[in-house]
Write a structure and sequence with these properties.
The complex is a heterodimer of chains A (319) and B (693). Chain A has 319 residues and is mostly helical. Chain A folds into two domains: 72 residues, no CATH class; 231 residues, MetI-like (MetI-like fold), CATH 1.10.3720. In chain A, 78% of the residues lie in helices and 0% in strands. Chain A has 14 helices and no strands. Chain B is of the alpha/beta class and 693 residues long. Among the domains of chain B are: 235 residues, Rossmann fold, CATH 3.40.50; 66 residues. In chain B, the strands form four sheets. In chain B, strands 6-7-8-3-9-10-12-11 form an eight-stranded mixed beta sheet, with helices on both faces. An eight-stranded mixed beta sheet of chain B has the order 18-19-20-15-21-22-24-23, with helices on both faces. In chain B, strands 2-1-4-5 form a four-stranded antiparallel beta sheet. In chain B, a hairpin with a 2-residue loop joins strand 1 and strand 2. In chain B, helix 17 packs across helix 18. Classes of the chains: A mainly alpha (319), B alpha/beta (693). The interface between A and B is medium-sized, with 25 and 34 residues. The complex binds iron/sulfur cluster (2 copies). The site of one iron/sulfur cluster has 13 residues of chain B, from loops.
């Protein structure tokens, strides 16, 4: 197992380094001179030269890359071109928001998705199975902005019009809100994300359950005279949920940074919207930082998935 | 008690729902098993025997359904129970030992926990008490180091140990009925015999009724009291074991017995009689007698379904002509295969194939840690210093258990594995090491047929094209010439010309193996390597393939290397038998002296372990201690010394044994014990061919 972990960690480092290189190269290629962007069209040649010196742009590319990487690793992420503010706190604040959303989305989707998947798998081709399949597939087909708007229509405006307590349609939480303060505004975006995850996770869980039910060890367990409940919980689910757990861990990466559409619909200040903002303003240092955090998020989620899988699976753990 | 039997099945019919109709997998079967009795159910794959035993526990998967009949377990009417109630019966009253121990254990639970579950399925015992019993059971089934064993996961223990565990699980609740479904089929003979002896002891102790399902007549003969023979969903004959073997009454039983070579049969002494045709697939058996289209004595009346005739006190048969058969008025043997395969061609002259000191080692990658701490690099030593010679027009049978390196050796000769040392000569010309360095002619000269031909044939290519391609590409034939040749090849392997248009998926296993043989013979090879060519086939078609191989060889005078785990088959077919263990040759012997001492201690154990299809032979099998060692950690001295029952001492563990040649039998034996001493201490293995024509 320790070899397994070491290997995974090695992969992780390699991935992150490679992406950092890619990010660096790509941003070098973007059209337009950085200092021109910062100082505006009217700036004189002298000011531009000064700016270049200050940013180290006169150095060779490898040196620039290493300096940038070193700074990144030590938390010195520079100043955002467009806002003139330090990048680190901005990104961290957004990351925090994204993590809160991720947490809520996971809490409401995973138990439901797994339960539906297990129910469908245990009742193959029975009404409950078809209902789950048709239901989740039809929802996953809808774009997130549609489901988002429908949810707003129902839970925000609809409930309000009925004079009932309702959920806010706008989720633009103020900076530094605590989790509890933010919670009411997290529910609708998290529900929207759930609709996407639901189909995905429940289908996979169903497939896992069906696959394991066919295994001869289930017959052994049944014919021992174990109560069916024990057979399912102790034997079937233990193995059937292994791939599900992996997928959940991987989807954390998507939840952290991939919710661009949902964040936009709900006006939620997460990492996704920050990335769009950085692209819009050609704010290169900000964009670099956001991408790096995103990649790290994905890589860590994958690592967690691998380790969890390895740990739960004795055939890997005891290698 | 109203009922002295532990299991009483009456007129049971089980069907599967398929494409809108019900297909019978078990048709009208009745059987009774008494306490303390071991009942053997023998049948080929597809006969319905597994469905029958699952139905007997009322454990049928979705799709299967009991259409009619009664099942009584002692006083319990199984058909009247709800699923809840069935779970009270399973495990406690009926216990089941499955065929594939590996997949029948949950991979993510410790084996100790799985055993505890069996002992305590509904949690009546205290956990401590259950654990104590679990450890006791580990010891009872001779699992070494029970405490550590209990902490292991299934993948950490060998197949033999897994099966012992499953047996412990089954017997731990003291069931009235024990059902064993091919419990030793995937195990090596030396492991099988240990398991069978263990089962025998435990069963005697336990007084349970036993339903033992297998396709292996040898196992039936050795451990069962009574036998039911199943064919195409029906039990066609039932008899006490010794009666069944001394006078089979149903033509199918006779065919089955005749189609497998027994220990001691050689191709000179015995003709295998294959059962013509094929096993009907489920729901496709002929109307009337299910065996009608393959029966050598079918007559008009056979198109009506024979009832179960009671023959004497204790036998039944589903054959209209049972009276004539009992009185030996008709001959129910399958027709003999035309001619007796004879030893062909001139076996003198330079060897077709010769290996000298051939070794094949696979390096194991070292971890970073091992590299830094300068540990020597290790390798899996699959084949070690093998000297093998195959004379022209002769067959060498290479026999070994799993992990013996026999397949690696074959692949090495073919150039599919890289040799680490030694030489391989074909027709006295050294072979280049790698496949791609060999020229077309060399490739043509050696052909191989694999165990699972489905993997070796392109599934999307019609048979004709599979055969045609090498003819056009390699032999340079025109399309028309190739067409003619394909027809000839199909005829050669007794397939009609219309097979050329079929896809591999439309062929049965036996037919596919014929195609693989045809493809090999298309090149007219000097050396044909057959790697377990019949072990994935149904018993009743194995003989046909063996006969075909024999005939092809006597016509074409090529040399053959026939690889098998089955000493009886190798003994039947080969001119010379080579026994391999852990990558090293142990003994080289002729088939006619195989049973005559001296034996290599390993061969002796192998021979004694084979269950013979003759209940009159009571064998006394030699148990080998422990497991086959890891080929990465080859024992020093004699590779067999860690398990050898005749271990001499120091010398075996330190010094490589010499090859001794026995003047009388011509055997060559790789052992330190002087041959005279072996002769003095070994007894002749008892064999008989009583059941043969
Ligand atoms: S009933 Fe007829 S066809 Fe069937 S086994 Fe007897 S003789 Fe053969
Ligand atoms: S050399 Fe020794 S260990 Fe090897 S087979 Fe002979 S007696 Fe047994």
């Amino acid at each position: 197992m320790s070899r397994f972990i070491l290997r995974r960690l090695g992969f992780l480092t390699l991935t992150v380094l490679l992406t950092s290189l890619l990010v660096f190269i790509v941003t070098q290629w973007l059209p337009g001179d950085v200092c021109r962007i910062i100082l505006g069209r009217e700036a004189g040649q002298g000011a531009i030269e000064n700016c270049r010196l200050e940013l180290g742009l006169d150095q060779s590319l490898p040196v620039q890359y290493l300096t940038w990487l070193g700074n990144f690793l030590t938390g010195d992420w520079g100043i955002s071109f467009s806002t003139g503010l330090p990048i680190y706190p901005i990104v961290m604040d957004r990351l925090r928001n994204s993590l809160m959303l991720t947490l809520v989305a996971l809490i409401i989707s995973v138990p439901l998705a797994v339960a539906l998947g297990v129910a469908a798998g245990l009742n193959e081709n029975k009404p409950i199975d078809s209902t789950v399949s048709v239901g989740s597939l039809s929802v996953v087909g809808l774009p997130e902005f549609v489901t988002g708007l429908v949810l707003i229509q129902v839970f925000s405006f609809g409930l309000r019009d009925l004079g009932l307590p309702y959920l806010p349609a706008n989720s633009s939480i103020p900076p530094q809100s605590t989790f509890l303060e933010a919670l009411p505004m997290l529910i609708l975006p998290a529900l929207t994300a759930m609709l996407v995850l639901l189909a995905y996770i429940s289908r996979l869980t169903r497939a896992g359950v069906l696959e394991e039910l066919k295994q001869p060890y289930v017959r052994t367990a049944d014919l021992k005279g174990l109560p069916r409940r024990n057979v399912i919980v102790k034997h079937v689910l233990r193995n059937a949920l292994l791939p599900t757990i992996t997928v959940i861990a991987i989807s954390i990466g998507w939840l952290i940074s991939g919710l661009v559409v949902i964040e936009n619909v709900f006006n939620y200040p997460g990492l996704g919207r920050l990335m769009i903002f950085a692209i819009d303003r050609r704010d290169l240092p900000l964009l670099q930082a956001v991408i790096m955090v995103t990649v790290l998020g994905f890589a860590l989620a994958n690592l967690a998935a691998d380790l969890l899988y390895g740990w739960l699976n004795p055939r890997i753990r005891l290698e | 008690m109203t009922n002295s039997s532990v299991l009483d099945i009456r007129d049971l019919t089980v069907a599967y729902h398929q494409d809108g109709q019900w297909l019978n997998a078990v048709h009208d079967v009745s059987l009774k098993i008494h306490a303390g009795e071991t009942y053997g159910l023998v049948g080929e794959s597809g006969s319905g025997k597994t469905t029958l035993v699952l139905a007997a526990m009322r454990y049928l998967g979705s799709g299967g359904s009991i259409r009619s009949g009664e099942i009584h377990l002692g006083d319990i009417d199984l058909m009247s129970l709800t699923e809840e109630e069935l779970r009270q019966v399973w495990g406690r009253k009926i216990a089941f030992v499955p065929q594939n121990p590996q997949s029948s254990l949950n991979p993510s639970l410790r084996v100790g926990e799985q055993l505890v579950e069996s002992i305590n399925p509904q949690g009546e015992l205290s956990p401590r008490e259950a654990e104590k019993q679990a450890l006791e059971w580990c010891a009872k089934v001779n699992l070494p180091d029970p405490e550590r064993m209990a902490e292991s996961y299934p993948h950490q223990i060998s197949g033999g140990m897994q099966q012992r565990l499953l047996i412990a699980m089954a017997l731990s609740t003291d069931p009235d009925l024990l059902i064993l479904d091919e419990p030793t089929t995937n195990l090596d003979v030396t492991t099988q015999v240990v398991i069978l002896d263990l089962l025998n002891d435990l069963i005697r102790e336990n007084e349970a009724g036993v339903l033992y399902v297998t396709h292996n007549l040898g196992v039936i003969a050795q451990i069962c009291d009574r036998v039911g023979v199943m064919y195409a969903s029906e039990v066609v004959e039932e008899a006490p074991t010794h009666n069944l073997f001394s006078q089979p009454l149903h033509p199918y039983t006779q065919g089955l017995i005749d189609s497998i070579p027994q220990l001691g049969d050689t191709r000179e002494s015995i003709q295998l009689r294959a059962i013509s045709g094929q096993i009907p697939s489920i729901g496709k058996s002929p109307s009337g007698c299910v065996f009608r289209d393959r029966c050598p004595v079918a007559i008009e009346i056979c198109s009506t379904r024979p009832p179960l005739y009671q023959v004497g006190e204790s036998r039944t048969s589903r054959c209209h002509r049972w009276e004539e058969i009992v009185n030996s008025e008709i001959d129910i043997h399958q027709p003999s295969p035309g001619r007796k395969p004879t030893q062909s061609g001139d076996q003198d002259g330079p060897l077709t194939l010769e290996t000298n000191d051939l070794s094949i080692h696979f390096p194991i990658r070292r971890s970073l840690n091992e590299v830094f701490s300068r540990q020597p690099s290790k390798s899996v030593k699959a084949v070690n210093q093998v000297d093998l010679g195959i004379s022209p027009a002769s067959t060498v049978g290479l026999v070994g258990e799993s992990g013996s390196g026999k397949t690696t050796l074959a692949r090495g000769i073919m150039g599919l594995e890289k040799k680490s040392d030694g030489s391989i000569e074909l027709l006295q010309i050294p072979l280049p090491e790698k496949l791609f360095q060999r020229d077309l002619e060399t490739l043509r000269l050696m052909q191989i047929v694999f165990q699972n031909p489905h993997e070796a044939l392109n599934p999307y290519l019609p048979i004709g094209e599979t055969l045609q391609r090498p003819l056009i590409r390699l032999a340079g034939l025109s399309n028309e010439e190739a067409d003619i040749k394909v027809r000839e090849l199909l005829e050669l392997v007794r397939l009609s010309a219309d097979y050329a248009g079929r896809l591999p998926s439309q062929l049965s296993g036996g037919e596919i193996q014929r195609v693989a043989l045809a493809r090999a013979f298309a090149a007219n090879p000097e050396l044909l390597i057959l790697d377990e060519p019949i072990s994935s086939l149904d018993v009743s078609v194995q003989a046909a393939i063996l006969n075909l191989v024999n005939e092809l060889q006597s016509d074409h005078h090529n040399s053959m290397l026939f690889i098998s785990h089955d000493l009886s088959i190798v003994g039947y077919l080969a001119d010379q038998i080579v026994v391999i263990y852990l990558g090293s040759l142990m003994e080289i012997t002729g088939p006619e002296v195989l049973f005559q001492p001296p034996h290599h201690p390993y061969t002796e154990a192998l021979l004694s372990a084979i269950p013979q299809a003759d209940p009159n032979i009571k064998s006394s099998p030699i148990h080998l201690a422990g497991e086959i060692p890891n080929p990465a950690d080859l024992p020093s001295g004699c590779p067999f010394h860690t398990r050898c029952p005749r271990y001499l001492g120091e010398i075996c563990a330190t010094t490589t044994p010499p090859w001794q040649v026995d003047q009388k039998t011509g055997k060559r034996i790789f052992c330190h014990i002087p041959l005279e001493e072996l002769v003095a201490n070994q007894i002749q293995i008892d064999i008989s061919s009583a059941a043969k024509p």
